[in-house]
Amino acid sequence: MRLITALLLYAAAAWAGPLDVRVESGPRDVRVESGARSAADWWQTALVYQIYPRSFKDSDGDGIGDLNGITEKLPYLKDTGVDAIWMSPIFLSPMYDFGYDITDYRQIAPEYGTMDDFDNLLATAKEIGIRIILDFVPNHTGNESEWFIKSKNREPGYENYYVWADGIPSPDKAGVMLPPSNWISIFRKSAWEWCEERQQFYLHQFVVGQPDLNYRDPRVQQEMKDVLSYWLDKGVSGFRVDAINMMYEVDPKDFDGKYPDEPLSGDPNANPEDYEYLSHPYTRDLLETYDVVYDWRDLLNEHTQKDGEYKILMTEAYTDIELMIRYYGHGNRNGSIPFNFSFLGDINNHSNARDIKMIIDRFMTYIPIGKTANWVNGNHDQSRLASRHGTNRVDAMNMLALLLPGVTITYQGEEIGMTDGYVSWEDTKDPQACNTDDPINYYKKSRDPNRTPYHWDDSNQAGFSTANQTWLPVADNYKTVNLASQMKASKSHYKFYKDVVAVKKSDAVRFGDLDTRAFSENILVVTRLAHLNPGIVGIVNLSDEDQVVDLSSIKMLPGHLLYVAASGVDCSLDKWQIVLKNQVTVSGHCAIVLRTLLFNC
Ligand code: GLC
Ligand code: MG
C-alpha cells in the first residue's frame, strides 16, 4: 500500500513540472515574494552564460573565435537552458587587452565578423529565445579611439574627454617630466603616460593603450549614453558594465589643483611597481560613480517601456560588500545588479560546508529587500572553477549557483568542468602577465590559462577551430574533458549541470524561500520551498566518504519521501529514485538535487 501511495505521489510530482508563469515586463523591480507564487520577469531568475568570443568557436579557421561561431552554437545553449548570453567585448580594438580597449563602440572587430554577422546573431538568438547582453566598457577607451586622438590634439570640445595632467619637472634631469602622482596601474607601473603631442600625462588605470575617460565632463556622460542607446535601439537586452568602480578619480580642484599621491598599503608581498603596493582612496569606489549607474538604469528603463522587455544591467566591481550593494540603488533610485564575487573570492577548495553557508548567508543578509541576487562561479579574469576548487567540487559549486535565488552567471566551459590550460611565457598574450616582465612567475598574474579555447569534442583543436594554431593553445586535457563525450556519458558534469538548470526553472527555485544548513563541516543543504509546489533540496557532500544525511530537522519538508532530480558525477544514486527523508545517502564528493513528492503548502 505504502509503495503504491509513493508511486502515485511520484507520478504526480513528475507530471506537475514547472508551471508557466506570466512574464511581467516593466521597469519596476519586482520583489521575489517569500513562499508565495508571484510574477517575476525573465532577468530576475535568468541563467546568463558568459561567452569569451575569442575562445568560443572559430567559424572561419583563423584560430580566433568569432560571431558566426557563436551563432552556430546557439542551439547548444538553448538546449542547455541558457536564457541570455553576455559576450565579452566584440568591438573594434587593437586588442592590447583583447577588446577591453575599444576604438569604436559602434563597430565590430573584423576578426570577430561584421555588423551583418552581429545582426544575424541577434536575430537568430531572438528567434530561439536567447537574449543578448553586451559588454559595456565605460572607464576607458583604446588609444586609437577618435575621441582620444581629438583630445590629445586639444580639438575644441574634446579637451577634457580624458584625465590629463601636467607633469612635474624632474629635479635631477632638465627637460624630463615626472608623472603628476604616484598612482599605479592595475597592470603594474605608473598609471600615467606622457603624451608628446599634448605635452601632458594621461591616466590609464589599466594598460598604456587604455586611457581613462573623464566623467567630470558632461559630454563624456552623454557620449556613453548614446552608445547604450545605439545598441538598445538595435534590440539587445542589456549590458554587463566593466570595471565600474574605477570610473572616477578625485577632482584636483579639491586638492589645490593636483592629483594627490595614494598612501602605501603596507602589503609585504607587493613591490613598488605593483598595484597592491598602494591603497586606492583617490582612484576607486568614488561615490560619484553611483549616480552615473542610476542614470543608465533610467535610460534602460525608457527602453524597457518602449520594447516591453526588461533591459538588464550588471556591474563589475571587486569591492567591499557595502559599496557593492549600493549599486542596486539608493533612496528612490534604482541601479544595477552588481556581480556577487563571493564565490570567486571567499570560497576556496579548503572551505567547508559551514564556511560556504556563511558566504551565502552573508550575501543574502546584505542584499536589499526586493533586489535580485546573483551567483558567479567564474569569468575570463579568474582561474577556472575546476582549477580553483578541484574537479571534485565542480558539480557542487555549479549546483549552488543554480539553486540559490536570482541570477546565475556561468562562464563558458564551467558547465563541463574545464580546467585552466597551460600557456608558456612565449605564448602568453595577457597584458597583465606580460607586464610582469617575469618569464618565471608570469603565470601568477596570467589570465590566459582560463581563456584557452572551449572544448567541443576530442578532434583536432578540441573542435574549436580548423586552424593549425589557435590564438591561445587548446588545453592538453581536451580529449578527456569535452562537451561531446560528456553528452554521451551517462553521468557527467554537463548532464548534471543541465538537469539542475531545468530545476532552476521550477517555481520553488524561482520564487521559493531559501533555507541553508550546514549539517556538519562536510554536508551543506540548500532548500527552496514555494507554496503549492514541489520543494527542492540540494545536498553537497564535501568529504571523501559516503554520508547518510537525515533531513528530519527540516520540518518544512512535507512527508518523508523525496526523489532525485539530479545527481552529480561522483554519485552512486541515480536520477528518478525515491529516497527516505531521514536516510539520504550521498556519496563522497557528490552533489544531488532532491524534489519533494508532495506539494508544499
Ligand atoms: C575588467 C575586465 C578585464 C579587463 C579590465 C579592463 O576587469 O573583466 O578583463 O582587463 O576590466 O577593461
Ligand atoms: Mg575566426
Q: Layout of SSEs?
A:
Elements: H1 2-16, E1 47-51, H2 67-80, E2 84-87, E3 91-92, E4 104-108, H3 115-128, E5 131-136, H4 146-152, E6 164-165, E7 168-169, E8 177-178, E9 192-195, E10 200-203, H5 218-234, E11 238-241, H6 288-307, E12 312-315, H7 321-325, E13 329-330, E14 333-334, E15 337-338, H8 342-345, H9 353-366, E16 374-376, H10 385-389, H11 394-403, E17 407-411, H12 431-434, H13 483-488, H14 493-504, H15 507-511, E18 513-518, E19 523-529, E20 533-541, E21 547-549, E22 561-567, E23 578-580, E24 584-586, E25 591-600
Parallel strand pairs: 1-2, 1-17, 2-5, 5-11, 11-12, 12-15, 16-17
Antiparallel strand pairs: 3-4, 6-10, 7-8, 9-10, 13-14, 18-19, 19-20, 20-25, 21-24, 22-23, 22-25
Helix pairs in contact: 2-3, 5-6, 11-14
Bound molecules: alpha-D-glucopyranose and magnesium ion.
Magnesium ion (MG) binds next to loops.
